[in-house]
Amino acid sequence: MSRKRVLIADDETAILSVLSYKLSSAGLDVITASDGLQALELAKSEHPDLMIMDFQMPGLTGLEVCLQLRADPATSNIKAIMLTACGMDVDQADLERADIALLMPKPFSPREVLSRAQDLLNTPCVGQLSH
Fold first, then answer.
1. Domains of the chain (ranges, CATH numbers)
2. Which residues of the chain have pLDDT under 70?
3. Model's pTM, two decimal places?
């Protein structure tokens, strides 16, 4: 069985470093992006199994990246976790439209992100939100 690939996109280098280390140490292949445009490009070229995206990024927001990926049959089934700044209000309809599997507030526990990522990677189809 091939290793699962995860795209982590965040404009904060500390978050990229911590999550990359945690997920790669758990045996996942990790690719990173520091803005929304780079995340979109990498998702289209690398076809990760899961994306962990910051909501607010330069270029495109995590939500905009997910919406564009959902519109393309080649990338429409990539599962997504959205990270949001504490108190950030994200519209439920937008989350459903972008098929975001999970919304996690910052600050977060890297162990919790890994656990949720592993749960999603072992689930055949997401299609519903949990908080």
1. 5-121 (3.40.50.2300)
2. 1, 86-88, 123-131
3. 0.90
